[in-house]
């Protein structure tokens, strides 16, 4: 198995490998796996090599940086100057001239932008597929999806063709692909990381503060490293706040109050999913935490609220961006745009009534979770489904419905930090467990993830089977 991101950085610091050599390694790796995955959709090899040479020169001058020389991939809804940013849409063809804030911070920290990764159009689906670049495949089984919407990121990191990446998470778009592909992926507290430089603009639609930018990687330490680089307000994102990031390595897991559950009143998890959550709870209990099985408050409306918010303008905002010509969109995108089950609004009164319900759920969940340091729950009801099939917990006739992801929708609407960490296997496919904490307590989430990861072995996907 390849070194983790932090191990690569240590090797470069000791002079065992140069940034140029590391860049060539990952360029070759992408070249080897991408024909099967279709995960990387934009890449400038010359720019990658130039950035790597610059990193080597900086290191030779005695300069340093937390990501100096490390390749990083970026979900293709975040601007990278000089590379297309299509977000899976035929509508946007201009090439950005400026970086998203998180990309700018990664570059300043010495990171080398390896490439852009695929997503469903406008991040609209748990299947990563669109009419621009096509479908992305799971790193273990090309007949399965790596999830969405950060499916390209999950696939390329899961195939060990990128050491670290940036995704976005609205309803679960970092956590679900990480769960499907055996990664650690964090949705930070709403406001922890600015979304400035995303397309579409994450703050201009009716969901307001629901979508977050977050790190994805192969270890807890890796995503903590990236979070430390990209967090903090930028004075442009109105929801980004100057709250200090606490040191996760200083958390004593033995002192944690841990709650866990597997049923939320809507989704019905597989046996292996239940076993993974129980296993994670047992690991924390063995480490000295006070662990108790709990029942969440009423959260069965989370999925309906999430999609009602997306459709609160009746789809007018999306149509203005990309149109609704059938030939330009996948069937699932059109279904999401037009499906009356997801609700719509035609008046300000309706929208404010929806916000009242959303904030009611947010308050209810936050008050409940304040009784614990972390809560464990499924990420989704089962492992990665086959292309064109519904996820666990959704009937075949209801393909395109999302009740199987109510676990992640709950904490999206609540605006809480939550992560997926590998904790089990079902049919040879990874199963992650969701770790949730109160606002701004990413340190508790990361500490619990690290404790679970130490006992389960964490990321192991490339060992079944070899991918090179």
Describe the structure in brief.
This is Amidase. The protein has 468 residues and is α/β, with parallel strands linked by helices.
Give me the secondary-structure topology.
Blueprint: H1 5-13, H2 19-37, E1 40-42, H3 45-60, E2 71-75, H4 101-108, E3 112-117, H5 151-158, E4 164-169, H6 175-181, E5 184-187, E6 212-217, H7 220-230, E7 257-260, H8 271-286, E8 290-293, H9 302-310, H10 316-322, H11 331-338, H12 348-369, E9 374-378, H13 406-414, E10 418-426, E11 429-436, H14 442-456
Parallel strand pairs: 2-3, 2-4, 7-8, 7-9
Antiparallel strand pairs: 1-3, 4-6, 5-6, 5-10, 9-11, 10-11
Helix pairs in contact: 2-3, 5-6, 9-12, 9-13, 12-13
Domain Amidase: 21-446
InterPro entries: Amidase_CS, Amidase_dom, AS_sf, FAAH2
Protein name: Amidase
Folded structure, characterized:
With 468 residues, the chain is of the alpha/beta class. The protein has a single domain, classed as Amidase signature (AS) enzymes (Alpha-Beta Complex), CATH 3.90.1300.10. The protein is 35% helix and 13% strand. The protein is built from 14 helices and 11 strands. The protein has helices at residues 5-13, 19-37, 45-60, 101-108, 151-158, 175-181, 220-230, 271-286, 302-310, 316-322, 331-338, 348-369, 406-414, 442-456; strands spanning 40-42, 71-75, 112-117, 164-169, 184-187, 212-217, 257-260, 290-293, 374-378, 418-426, 429-436. It has an 11-stranded mixed sheet with strand order 1-3-2-4-6-5-10-11-9-7-8, with helices on both faces. Helix 4 (101-108) links the parallel strand 2 and strand 3. Helix 12 packs across helix 13 (406-414). Mean pLDDT is 93; it is low at 462-468. InterPro entries: Amidase_CS, Amidase_dom, AS_sf, FAAH2. This is Amidase. Residues 21-446 form the Amidase domain. Pfam families: Amidase (PF01425).
